[in-house]
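Posted in: Structural Biology > Protein-Ligand Complexes

Title: Requesting predicted complex, adenosine-5'-diphosphate in pocket

I'd be grateful if someone could produce the 3D structure tokens for the following input. Sequence and ligand are given below.
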Amino acid sequence: MNKKLFVISGSSGVGKGTVLKKFLEKNPHFMLSISCTTRSPRPGEVDGVNYFFLTKEEFKNCIDNDKFLEWAEFAGNFYGTKQKYINQCLAEGKDIILEIDTQGALQVKKRMPEAVLIFICPPSLEELEHRLRGRKTEDEATIKKRLDAVKIELERAEKFDYRVVNDDLDRAVKELEEIIIGEQKC
Ligand code: ADP
Ligand code: 5GP
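-- Reply #1 --
Done. Output follows.
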């Protein structure tokens, strides 16, 4: 079976983490890439598990030393994927999924055209805002920054290989599974 890099993006609060958690429970041989970020950990988040939490200086150092496959500034913080980490996973034959923002996803596609980009869409903009607020992890200023990004994210979604609407969770997970299994057969 072909080893491919799968990249999942979508606006903040659309349910990427929720969909992927369920997908990974059903498909435990897939690995979720651990990104670097300069944002502060949320309650319960663990360094080296959810993210590698870096200072701005450490992050800048990685940029200057060309350590990232891709990186982006999103809603006031920096996020990036280490090239070495992805190379190692692919060399070991692992099935790997990146959950990153739309700017990063398009950078990956440029550098690795065989990567498969999947955009998770909200059923409506109202529902997206409802989910983002309902999560209660961000303050009002951060929620606003994240909602401000939605329009351009939906425009970038046109460049993705697939779009999956996260309306009913189980249905969306099933559709994601079908896409990924189908791509692995190509
Ligand atoms: P993201 O990772 O895209 O920022 P999350 O996975 O944290 O989003 O989901 C944001 C909120 O939306 C969470 O409270 C989650 O429980 C909820 N959610 C996710 N998927 C659905 C769905 N299909 N229907 C209803 N609520 C959902
Ligand atoms: P959060 O702060 O909610 O964890 O993530 C905010 C956004 O950053 C989400 O869209 C998430 O997909 C994205 N993100 C997480 N890791 C990376 C990464 O390594 N690179 C890029 N470009 N975006 C990332």
